[in-house]
Predict the structure.
Amino acid sequence: MSAIRTLLLRDLAQFLPGARKGNTLLPLLFFLAVAMLYPFAVGPNPNLLVATGGGVIWVAALLAAILPLDRLLAPDLEAGFFDQWALRGVAEEMVVAVRLLAHWLSFGPFLMLAALPASALLGIDGATLRTVELGLLAGTPGLAAIGIIIAAVTVGLRSGGAALSGLLVIPLAVPLLIFGAGSLSTGGEGGIALTAAISLVLVAIAPFAGGAAIRAAREG
Amino acid sequence: MEAPRLAARDLACRRGERLLFRALSLNLDAGTACHVTGSNGTGKSSLIRIMAGLLRPYAGVVERAGSTALLDQSLALDEHLPLGRALAFWAGMDGAVSGDDLARLGLTDLLDVPVRYLSTGQRKRAALARMIGQDARIWLLDEPLNGLDQDAVGMVEQLVESHVAGGGIALVASHQPIGIPGMDVLHLPDYAPGIAA
C-alpha cells in the first residue's frame, strides 16, 4: 500500500496543474483558447453557437487530453525508473494504473471546471451545460485511459512520439466523442451511460495494455 | 533470511544481428563478488541487465534468489527536484538512507541542489545512495566507477567489500580495475564474427 501511495504522490506532484513550473497548465489554457477562438471563427450568430458549442467543448477536451502524452511515461522509462520498479517487484501494471489515476485527476476535474467559462463564451444554456458536464465526467476517464495506452505503446520511440501519439489517440476516441457529444443532441441519459460504459472498459484494460507495452519497450 | 544466490547457465545474448556472448555460466553464492571485464561492446551491460531480469537472454537461464539492486547509467532520480526530495521518493519505497551513508558519499551538502545541476561524479554518488537505501542482498553494478575521483573509487571499493563481507553478492561490470580482495574475474571475449548464429 505504501508503494502505491508513494507512487501516487510523486505522480500528482508531476502532473497536477501548476506543478513543474506551470507546464501542466497548458492543456487547460489550450482548452479555453479553443472555446474562445471558435466564436471568432464562425461568427457571433447565437443560434449557431448554441447548436455547435457543446460539440466544440468535446473536441477541445479531446485535444487538450492529447497534449501531456509525451511526458506521461517516456521520461520515466528513459531515466530508469521502470527498471528500478521492476527490481523491487512493483508491477508495470500497477505503475500504469496509478499513473492513469494521476493523469485523469490532473485534467478531468479541471476540464469540467474550465467548461463553465467555456460554456459562457459559447452561450450554452444551463440544461446543455449539465449534459456537457455529465458527459465529460463519464468520458474523460476513457480519454485518459486511451492516452496512457498510446503513451505506453509509443514509449520507445526516440523522436516523433508526441505527434504520432496524438494522431493515434484520435481514431480510438471516436466512440467516446460520438456518444459523449451525441448525448447533447438527444439530451439523453442514454448517450452518457454509453460513454461511461466505454470509459469503464478502457480504464479496465489500460493498466494491462500499458504494462505489456512498457515491458516490450524495455526488452527492445 | 535466506542466503542470496545468483547463477546463470549457458547464457547467450544477441543484440540485433550480433551474438555478443554464448555458453556463459556463472555461479555466485552469498559473500562472493565477480568482476566482469571486457572491451566496449562485448556485452557487459547486457549481461548485467540479463542478470537483473530486465533483458531476456537469447538462450540460457538465470537463477536469482534475494532482493536485487541495480546501478547503471540511468539515475532514476527526478532531475527537477532537489537531491534530498528525489532520494526521498525512493526512501518512501525502500526505507531511508542513513545520514552516515550520505556523509560517506559526500552528499550531505548537496541535498538542496536540483539533480540536474549535479556533476557526473556527484550523480554517480547519488545513484549509489539510492542503491544503498534499497538494502538489497544482490548488487548489480554497471560501470560504478565512471566519473568518480580517486577518493570516491576507494569508497566504492570499500562499500562493495563490506557488502560482500556481510554475506551479500556483487556482480560488477567495469573496464577499470577494482581492488577487492578475493574477487572472481569473468572476462568477456571480443566479438568473434565466426560464432554468429
Notes: Chain A touches chain B through 20 residues (CB under 8 Å).
